[in-house]
Amino acid sequence: MARNTQVAADHNAPPITQILAQFVAHHPSRGWSDAVDHEAHRTFMNWLGCAVGAAHHEAADAALAAVNMLQPAAQASVLGRTEKVDMASAALINGITSHTFDFDDTHLKTIIHPAGPVASAVLAMAEHLGNSGREVIDALVIGIDVSCRVGNAMYPDHYDRGWHITGSTGTLGAAAACARLLKLDVQQTAMALGIAASQPIGMREQFGTMTKPFHPGGAARAGLMSALLASKGYTASPKALEAPRGMMQTVSTKNDWTEITGELGERFEISFNSYKPFACGIVIHPSIDACAQLRKQGVTPDQIDRIELKVHSLVLELTGKKEPQDGLQAKFSVYHGCAAGLTFGYAAEEEFSDEVVNRADMVALRRKVVATVDDSINEASADVTAVLLDGRRVHVFVEHAIGSLKNPMSDAQLEAKFQGMSDAILGAGQTSELINACWAMGNAANVKAVVALASPTRP
To answer: Which of 56, 103, 143, 314 has the smallest number of Cβ neighbours within 10 A?
Structure first.
């Protein structure tokens, strides 16, 4: 007996796959404002710093060891290390490292980390092919636009179902960006998107494990391979995104097609990118910010009877781990975030190390955090009250945390963040050179010179 399992399928969806393919193939180089172009350079620099910073994390060591069993050709660099591997494997590993610290960029409307999949695929391919920096920046803007517009169309239903939206839409963004680098025509680009549409990657169950950063890495590799396959004549459905049994209607009941088509080529989603001052899940940032403000007001951990935390339900859904056992788990613990903010006044990668997470004083302090749900509070805000042992109450409400679109990190703060991740690996002098190269990326004749600066043994 035939089954009818399609729920409210849209059989009259616009030709989204073809519309995006036209955009990717034909939108003019630097066809956007100076502000958008500057944001692209900020995005690239932030992504590169995150990738270099985690280059020697155990997740990177394991991934590289597995890749080397395939005996890859030396086509592209593993950022922050001396090794070279094939470009697909470089996309994988650099995507993993860029997200390992959970310190990368965030498109706040969808909680997508857009650069991880897109930039990792683009730079690996560009290094091998010898593309210019302008071609890389163009591909980055366009690829991020594809992934975030698809994300806009499906969010929040797709995310609520359990998909890690960074990986599932990042495959499409990486495919689009690599199709652009390869100068594929509209038909080939549509095929690249179609091939990528059969490879959405990532489930939220993996948060707090090494497999979470695998999602942007896997998406980068899948997108790159999709574009390569399409360039050689491999085919896919020309309606792979929008068809009733295509990707988008399969993985989400919400599909607002106007989020993809509206102002396409005029409004660029990279404009709405944000950058993390704290190395953890974005919804923890307001709580850390609030506790850091308490510290500035003179509140110290030894004075605390309890910390009363009020947040949106999404915060506890995503980051409600009360007793994290290691650094990866702590990145999803608003309790640890509060303890770090009050103890250190900030929360970079070191504050999420296994050692700090398991310190007796940190364990004791986070057990004093009493978190309650208040959905009248925006998910990007936090209400924190420190109740002191002498009975005093000190209150802080953070509406817009540092790093948000309303309170963004400056260029100088992004540079300082980069230096904090890269100096120990590349040295302060080389890090400064690399930062300058990132700002000048759009004018680089060949990206290989920029990539060489990201190696600890550059020529």
So the answer is: 56
